[in-house]
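Pipeline run #58 for the internal structure catalog. This entry was flagged by the ingest filter as a single-chain record with no existing model, so it goes straight to prediction. Upstream metadata was stripped on purpose; only the residue string is passed forward. Reviewer on rotation: M.T. Logging verbosity set to normal.
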Amino acid sequence: MTLSLFASLFWRFGVRYWIRHWLKLLLLVSIVALGCGAFLAIGLANRASTQSFDRFAQTVSGQSQLVVTPALGDLSLDDLRSIRIALLDTEATLVPQVVSSARLNDRPDLAAEDSVFTLVGMDLLAASNFLLRHGSETTFLSTDPSQPSGPLERPRGVYAQAEASRAYSWDSSSTLALFVEDRLVNLPWVGELPQPEDKRQVASNVLVMDWRDLSELLGKPLHANRVDIVWSEEDRSDAEIQQAISHLEKANPGTWVVESQSQRQATGATMTLALRMNLRALSVLSLLVAICLVFQAMDSTVARRQAEVATLHSLGVSTRLTRLLWFADACLVGFLGGGLGLLLGDLMARLSTKMVGQTINTLYYNAGSIDHRYSFAEAGLAWSLTIVFCIAAGWWPARQAAKSPVVETIRQGNHRSSYSRPSYWIASSIFAFLAVVAYLIPPVRAANGHAIPVGGYALAVLLIGLVASLACLTLESLGQLCNSLGNRYASLRLALSQFRLPVTRHRLALAGVILSVGMTASMIFLIGSFESTVRSWIGSTLQADLFIRPKSVSASHDIPGIRKEIVESLRNNERTSDIGVIYRDSTRIQNLPTQLVGFDTDYLHRIDHTTWIERPDNLLDLKSGDTATVNEAFASRFQKKVGDRVEIPTRQGPLQLRIIGIIADYGNENGSLGIDKELFQNITGKTRPSAVALHLKAPQEIDSYARELREAHPALFVMTNRWLREETLRIFNRVFSITYALEGIGLLISVVGLGSMLASLLIERRSEIGTLQRIGFDLRSIALSSLWEGVALALLGILSGLLLGCLLGLTLVFLINKQSFGWTLTVSISWNTMLGLGLLTAAGAGIVSYFVGRWSAKLPPLAEE
């Protein structure tokens, strides 16, 4: 076979056919583009979320090669001195930093994520020294000798990115009113951040000020959250960096964490690993639904072009070359559909990036407004995967067409399925056996300590195969129902008779409906279970009348505090009947980031608002100083149970704690370790609680007292019980918002696929339709027959899809979710939503089927399309 012969045959056999039937090609390419676009959009959104952490780290760290952070608490002045002494023999520049969150005041016109900034305090003198040594034209310091404070003035104010300064119209006359911790502060805008020489991309939601000013503002004078260690390009080398690491490890008192910048940035990717994997899995399902339609279309094309295939065989074209021509056809569809999907995916990514960004900002870290940027790597992956899937979808029709004898090929009409009922019994048995094996596969531990439920993902795929096989087995039974109708309902009998010997496209359209309905139903199952569990958890946890926290909190990782004098004023107020406080701090256990929580044990004992997975025998044992509780995510991530011991680093040395209870907590997937507040303050040095719960003597005074507190403390969020419950559920719905879009795409593709299947079958039945018209069937009767055929297939697909959705939902709740996050969920199925899903899909299928039937009945007898 020569290339010229293949090209000539492909032009005559493939390209010219699609040119004549351009409308069908356009529909097919559009559906493939929709699936490819959904896959690409999620990929771009995932990449944007990871890069947002990189931009944040680069903005905070600049060109630093090493970062030293505390394992618990802050870096004291002694720590900073020890780090400096350890690196005296190196050419490194040290830049101490304090990082907090700040929220703009009096900007109701801004979205929530646009009013929150990361406030970074850094040693501006050290940073300016580094910039001057490298020939930078701008620094953080004034070099005007006429300034009253001298030629090297340390400005008291904030620097902002040029992009943010322009967006908010900040200039030298501007003063920023910011909520920082529990107070409202006014800080002058000093200037724009010096631009790095390497023009790296930096986050726009970062404000910079001197670290001494910010540390004093936060009530921690001369303390730091981290120290960035930087080398100039000429002094930087792997040997120099490794030597610095060695010096730091020798000087490490056991409370430092030394990381390279690449390790630090990798932390951002591992934080969101589970979220990104689950979204990617959903996008793959959307693409698979589209590929089912490609399979269906290729099968339709084979059936309608059998005479051409027979002609090729009679002319001596080999079976191998015929198969390659069909592969080229499928590759053309994948190439065009994937190419259009790259454009569509870019448009869809603008929405999906915003949705994923909201979830990242809420649950992980404050990245601000996450920018959508096109990635050729993601585009290449989506395009390649689409082409591969399309070729795979064309493999079976190509094989069937290539191996068919000439006489049989000419004689056959519709391309009947070559699989018998026993074949589907065997397939179902194999899928069931493999599903049991997949269920027993243990999870794989990821770099972030969470488990990757490999067996759970495999089980989900096998359940799809199992339910689809059983549905295909049931399909022929629909044809037997027409016997029970007698001579009544001619259109319905005619429709059901088509399933006595169903064609391959019937099964493919059925699989598409099952997959899309099953995917949507499984998410309804998961979201319903999650919402029910969260509502129950909220009802148990939120028992106070008022909840108070700083306004500067922007995400679950932010831990600003409330000053002790404010807490005491709340405690001593005559309206207060009881008060509870909670303390939080970040820590490292087994070199993995997690959270340390300081409980008011006496308050917990008085008002036990905790949902326990395993309740302690005596909660007051927490006050002994050597015990702790953990939440489910911690127990799963660190593989701990009640009675086990956990070691945490402190300035006094490693502290061993015995676990006495496990708490249900759905707000922190990295896990938390709970201890008594007295021990917390001793080992962290932090005396400011992160939140306060108030119980009032008179419930009717809740709203009035809340208004008074908001006026007295404008930097604090004062939330009523009712408002906080509603806000928690709103955040919950926002987290799942992107799944709704993916579900809609899958349903749209499946309904369009059903209509495409019916259209191709009715075109192939032109002789049958002509006969029906001659014996008295009018246009309406033929349209009704098409409607019943589509609705019958859709109903079987809907019922099977709902069954699949429940099975996948159970897999998500008890396997994938449990292994990924460690959360125990209570099963709750929203039957009304399930019913709505079924009715919506059936209605869509009915409408499409009816109008396809009317269209086909109007075609002239010899028309092909």
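catalog note: Residues 319-363 form the longest helix (45 residues).
catalog note: The first strand starts at residue 66 and ends at 70.
status: ready for reviewer M.T.
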